Amino acid sequence: MIIEAVEDHSQLHILVVDDNVIMRDMARESLTKVGFSVSEAENGVRALQALEKLRPDIILMDVMMPEMDGFATACAVRQLPGFEMVPILIMTALDDLDSINRAYEVGATDFITKPINWVILVQRVRYMTRAARMMNEQKQLERELQQVHKLEAVATLAGGVAHDFNNLLQAIQASSELLLLNTREGEPGFPLLNQIIDAVDRGGSLIRQLLTYSRKIKSDKRPINLNDQAQKAHQLLQRTIPKMIEIDLRLEEDLKLVDADPFQIEQVLMNLAINARDAMPDGGRLVIMTANLKRPEKHTGTLTRSPSREWVLLSVSDTGHGMDKGTLEQIFEPFFSTKAPGKGTGLGLSMVHGIVKNHEGRITCRSTPGKGTSFRIYLPAVEPSREKKPLEEKKEYQVGNETILLVDDEEAVRKTGKERLERAGYTVLTASGGEMALDIYRQKTSKIHLVLLDLIMPGMGGISCLYELLQTDPGVKVIIISDYSPDEETMEVIEACTNAYLRKPYTGDQLLSTVRKAIDGV
Fold first, then answer.
1. pLDDT confidence tier of residue 201, bands split at 50, 70 and 90
2. Do 149 and 184 have their domain in common?
3. Which of 171, 337, 375, 509 could form a disulfide with 346 if both were Cys (CB 3.0 to 4.6 A apart)?
């Protein structure tokens, strides 16, 4: 991008360090005239004291100064965290080669000799501004690349954890439901079993969150009104957040719809609200706001490149202790946390960022130490005609007398699945892997009406087993079972070659209904 001479520099801050007040005044006048913000220091010692507070974008520095000269000051600046790349322009009357070389050795970016031509100095500063921006953009790209590598590592870890954990949840879910079938309402164990089933459901939600973060599960997007998610979050927060924190809902009445996964949006709201709660240990105000935007707001990055689109704003603000610039730059990085060890995973805001990005949105954060923090999420609006009403689930206890082959490498899943299906009247054969399943099916092809096939198994996986089954019997009926959404290529195979897809952890009712429909060809 080419930056013209009329560029707005109002956001750029320059620190002028010179013991000569006339020089400082002339520098201030020349630079403020073209839009720069200017601060002053009369020597190197004062400059170093002011750096942490001022955080200048460029430093203009004289060489010959009392207490600490420009060379020593430049060297000291380069040792400070966060100032390794800040441009330093040396202003000096020394024009000998040794002085010039020394300026570069101590970390100066450029130099200009006195008497100063202020027009040339302004042009030098502009040039340094452009160079600094290009360097910052390169550093940002490097940080984003590092974050991609971190996310890939987390995705691999999350996928492995989800596979094992979902198998455990499935065994707990099925065992609890089997016990519940033999327990009457009012008996001591009845509420405890329901609590276990509810806990499994929450565990499944946690796994979906991890899989969403690792992009191993597809978002269930549909047109929704963000006001509904905000009100649900508000109801939950009223029961869980300290009463000394006031929750203020500011929802636009005729809010446009967005294409989003309601579960994930609620997760975003809860993560942001929990962070706000932790930032206000002595109480404060939490504000959740929604609004329609007919045109992009200023400083919203990629949104400004889509001026024809309409957007919906979801904002979560607090009056907590806020964050400094250094913290603000890292909040969306995986595993970064300001909380004490054991108090947080460092994944909350990273998940929020991933969800928003997956929804083709944008999230920004503004924070001031001592005043609070505001997260603003921008999601593209959709037309009302696209709104869909969720289908009501039918929980039918369907029975049968057919023979089913259940294939899963987890013994607990096989045992509980077999018992639940047998209670419904089915005859169940089991196999612990793909090779064993093929042997059984080839021996009893005419007697097996349906195969329940786990997708992820050691040795021969579900897809390989499916191909072999189809070669043995092109008319075989198969339900694929998996811990998470397969990739597009695998999903195409499942949709084309199987009768149904079932995701763990599933309930007994879901299993029986899916089995009955697959056998009947519904």
1. confident
2. yes
3. 337
Percent helix, percent strand, percent coil in the chain, to nearest 5:
45, 20, 35
Task: List beta partners, residue 58.
Answer: 14
pLDDT tens digits along 479-511: 999 876 677 788 888 888 999 999 888 888 889
**Which of residues 209, 241, 261 is at a domain's end?**
209
CB 356 within 8 A of CB 363: yes
Name the band, by pLDDT with cuts 50, 70 and 90, for residue 97.
confident
- Specify whether 273 is located in the same domain as 346: yes
Give the model's pLDDT for residue 299: 46
Phi, psi of 400 (to 5 degrees): -170, 175
Count structural domains, the chain.
4
Question: What is 505-520 written as a DSSP string?
Answer: S--HHHHHHHHHHHHH
pTM over 0.70? The answer is no
> Cα separation of 25 and 29, whole Å?
6
Residues 463 and 323 placed together within one structural domain of the fold: no
Which amino acid, one-letter code, is at 267?
Q
Q: Which DSSP string do the residues of 263-319 spell out, in sequence order?
A: HHHHHHHHHHHHHHHHT-TT-EEEEEEEEEESSPPTT-GGGGG-TTS-EEEEEEEE-
